[in-house]
Write a structure and sequence with these properties.
The protein is mainly α and 105 residues long. It contains 3 helices and no strands.
């Protein structure tokens, strides 16, 4: 459902790029669709984490393995995410600083 909302949002964004009147009209709709998709994804993630914790506490078979796999996946995705974020922030800061850096002689 979140994927469908994301695709629909991109279609609306493509249509709104045709004119500023369309963008002004569709901007709020696109924003609410994106917020809805984020809420759906967060709900799925939280419900799966709650189920994993419940299974772990009740010692269901495979719960520890699933927990380790989730932790491995999270650690493998967070490290590159942080690196890309830091690089992007530095790139944007230096780019913007160089745009507005007026050297007076």
């Amino acid at each position: 459902m979140a994927l469908a909302l994301g695709v629909f949002s991109l279609v609306l964004l493509g249509q709104s790029a045709q004119s500023s009147v369309e963008f002004g009209r569709l901007h709020t709709v696109i924003l609410f669709i994106d917020i809805g998709a984020a809420v759906v994804l967060l709900t799925l993630i939280i419900s799966n984490l709650v189920r994993l914790l419940r299974d772990y506490q009740q010692n269901f078979p495979g719960a520890r393995l699933r927990g380790r796999m989730v932790m491995a996946f999270v650690s493998l995705t967070v490290a590159p995410l942080v690196l890309v974020f830091l690089f992007a922030v530095q790139f944007l800061n230096r780019g913007i600083d160089s745009w507005f850096d007026v050297q007076v002689e």
